[in-house]
Amino acid sequence: MSYQVFDSLAAIDFAKAKGFFPNEAQVSSHEIGDGNLNLVFQLSTPERSLIVKQALPYARCVGESWPLTLDRARIEAETLQAHAKVAPDLVVKVLDFDLEKYAMVQEDLSHLVLLRKRLIDVEKVDNLAEDLARYLADSLYAYSDFALAAQAKKALVQNFTNPELCQITEDLFFTDPFREHERNDIFPATRPLAEELWQDVMLLDAVAELKARFLSCPQSLLHGDVHSGSVFSGPGELKVIDAEFGFFGPIGFDVGSVIGNLLLAWCRHKTLGNNDYADWLEEESLSFWDLFESRFRTLLAGTQDPGLASEGYQSRFLAQVQRDALGYAGCELIRRTLGLAHVADITSLDDAQRSDAEKKALALGRSLILASQGSCDISLIRRLLKPSPVR
Ligand code: SR1
Ligand code: MG
Questions:
Q1: Residues with CB under 6 A from ligand 1
Q2: In what residue span(s) does the Aminoglycoside phosphotransferase domain sit (predicted)?
Q3: Ligand 2 centre and the CA of 373: distance in Å?
Q4: Is 351 a residue whose pLDDT tops 60?
């Protein structure tokens, strides 16, 4: 049967037709999606529990006035499957994908907690930097020119061309927040700072450079939206979900999204005076990069392409990824403050705290973006997070 938007019962019928439950089973079904785009049903019997995720023909957070391709469900399933080939323990399992219903069946991760919630709740997450670094290093290396034959990679670039979802990022990440735009959502106390930022020509030049690299730099198959709401975590476990923004883009974009989200949590906790926890977030950001870089460098040594085996080139490549990551982290801080899609790390604060945290996010974001255009490295984060000297 052709595409229809599921309700709870249709989600059960779908899972039964796929053989996940016997026809006679009493299955309970609840729509639990709280993301910006899709429907998510949790189906359970006493014996098993599963997730059915279906793409809607529009962006859920805005409504039918924002039509959106259903093909994103295919991209999501295939990106998760591609990344699971090389990092199976760190990616949610896709058990089935249906190209007519634009729906997939996934393992249920409800024994885990969204990373964003854990970061808000002042939890020091074991192995966070290690797991995220391994997920990104292994998946981003495996789908790069260093690991794939050129023609195979080009075929994948074609398969993962994701113009509508990329357009969302191009607009919401790089364009709207840096000018007046009706999609922006600006906290009144923050507006004067936004207006100041919009006049900053050097900043706008740097953001244009970062956007151009996002548009035209197919280095590897990115997750494309690896913020702390796309990661589940629990004791000894971390799982990445929600890869509908997957496409071939600059490696630093995924790396920077992780760093940007740790720094958004830092802005929250520094504002609240949770200094020990803010220091932990700072250390996690730095070790995340160090672990990513060292694992990626080790993988590079095994490149299949003798033409890309030069150590000098590989070092320059990683230095560029680092600069990109700092710049994209800066854009994430700014777009989550001024743009359409905010984060609970900041919006759940009271008004005075929110204004303070947003001020920090904008200043930090700006410095990171400007620095990404020079010869900066990750230690910049340490310098930027230090309290400014009293003048
Ligand atoms: C209309 S989608 C808004 C945001 O949600 C997604 O998770 C992406 O981060 C996107 O920018
Ligand atoms: Mg998402």
A1: 36-37, 59, 61, 168-169, 172, 225, 341
A2: 31-267
A3: 28
A4: yes
